[in-house]
């Protein structure tokens, strides 16, 4: 058995999983920690009841991750994790191998292992959440890049102010969370995070909701075309909670066709599909990453 964590800005998910991906137990706790040390204490507390069964620990977390050393840089929404060796901290307490991977890359690895990227030459995995997570698969392997930042599409700029020398990041314009908030605010919904209600409005043809949704979709479609030109993947897979809504990929394909029809110079032919895994993708990907890292170490 393996103990797997998915550290997020709101919750830390954890699961007891078998080596084939079967989930034997799954739960979560709020991300209340204010330091790396406090977070480790909370994580170890959840692991302890299963310690006699666990052969290794896999972690998905935000930030730029040195997977070989287990060090987190930046930390994403958890800035206190910057330059912390979380793998070493957990291994010291649990006495088993610990392997880390970036959250978006974990989502991509889930699709490579058991999802839509399993038997493809190449793929770009876009996870729509609070930002836009990215993972690039080429020749059946996850790409990390020289600076460990391959696939960090959230930092791509969608516009640029030449006077202020500042741009708008794709992580904001492509944020599913921001989309939900904008529509919920426009429609005066009591819960600004109520994605189900928002998509009910979209699917029912609400005009105000669909104006905002269409603008969001065109922004995504534009960046999908850019990604297609840059790395020419066999598929571009859309993940994250809202990917469970069929209208998302349906409208993306329509929007790409409309953009291409308006500009005959466009030659890209992106194949846009829905990820198999949604909210639990990081757990599966983190576990697969554990196996990959252990295998690589054994071959050295």
What would you note in describing this structure?
There is one protein chain. Strand 14 (about 235-240), helix 8 and strand 15 (about 270-275) form a beta-alpha-beta unit. With about 300 residues, the protein is an alpha/beta fold. Helix 1 packs across helix 2 and helix 7 crosses helix 8 (about 245-260). It has two domains: about 1-105 and about 280-300, Nucleotidyltransferase, domain 5, CATH 3.30.420.40; about 120-275, Nucleotidyltransferase, domain 5 (2-Layer Sandwich), CATH 3.30.420. The strands form four sheets. The protein has a five-stranded mixed sheet, sandwiched between helices. The chain has a five-stranded mixed sheet with strand order 11-10-9-14-15, with helices on both faces. It has helices spanning about 35-45, 85-95, 105-115, 170-175, 175-185, 195-205, 205-230, 245-260, 280-300, and strands at about 1-5, 10-15, 25-30, 55-60, 65, 70-75, 85, 100, 120-130, 130-140, 140, 155-160, 165-170, 235-240, 270-275. InterPro entries: ATPase_NBD, ROK. It holds the Pfam family ROK. Belongs to the ROK (NagC/XylR) family. This is ROK family protein.
The CATH class of the largest domain is identified as Alpha Beta
| Rg of Cα set | 20 Å
Major β-sheet, in short?
5 strands, mixed
- Helix proportion: 25-40%
- In CATH, the architecture of the largest domain is 2-Layer Sandwich
Shape, per Cα inertia axes: globular
Structural class: alpha/beta
CATH superfamily of the largest domain: ATPase, nucleotide binding domain
Q: What do the pLDDT scores average to?
A: 94
Total number of beta strands = 15
Largest sheet strand order: 3-2-1-4-8
Residue stretches low in confidence (pLDDT < 50, at least 5 long) are none
At the fold tier of CATH, the topology name of the largest domain is Nucleotidyltransferase, domain 5
InterPro entries: ATPase_NBD, ROK
Pfam families: ROK
Family: Belongs to the ROK (NagC/XylR) family.
Protein name: ROK family protein
């Amino acid at each position: 058995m393996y103990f797997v964590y998915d550290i997020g800005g709101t919750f830390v998910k954890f699961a007891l999983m078998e080596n084939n991906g079967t989930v034997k137990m799954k739960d979560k706790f709020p991300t209340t920690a204010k330091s790396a040390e406090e977070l480790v204490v909370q994580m170890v507390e959840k692991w302890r009841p299963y310690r006699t069964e666990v052969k290794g620990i896999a972690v998905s977390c935000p930030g730029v991750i040195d997977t070989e050393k287990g060090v987190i840089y930046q930390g994403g929404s958890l800035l206190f994790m910057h330059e912390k060796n979380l793998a070493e901290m957990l291994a010291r307490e649990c006495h088993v191998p610990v392997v880390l991977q970036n959250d978006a890359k974990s989502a991509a690895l889930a699709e490579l292992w058991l999802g839509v990227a399993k038997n493809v030459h190449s793929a770009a995995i876009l996870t729509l959440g609070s930002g836009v997570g990215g993972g690039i698969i080429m020749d059946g392997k996850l790409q990390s890049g020289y600076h460990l930042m391959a696939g960090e599409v959230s930092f791509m700029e969608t516009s640029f102010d030449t006077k202020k020398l500042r741009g708008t990041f794709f992580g904001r314009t492509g944020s599913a969370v921001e989309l939900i908030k904008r529509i919920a605010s426009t429609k005066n919904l009591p819960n600004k995070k109520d994605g189900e209600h928002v998509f009910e409005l979209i699917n029912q043809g609400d005009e105000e909701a669909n104006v905002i949704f269409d603008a969001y979709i065109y922004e995504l479609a534009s960046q999908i075309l850019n990604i297609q030109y840059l790395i020419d993947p066999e598929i571009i897979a859309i993940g994250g909670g809202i990917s469970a809504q069929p209208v998302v990929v349906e409208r993306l394909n329509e929007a790409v066709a409309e953009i291409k029809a308006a500009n005959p110079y466009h030659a890209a032919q992106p194949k846009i599909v829905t990820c198999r895994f949604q909210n639990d993708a990081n757990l599966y990907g983190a576990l697969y990453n554990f196996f990959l890292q252990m295998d690589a170490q054994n071959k050295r």
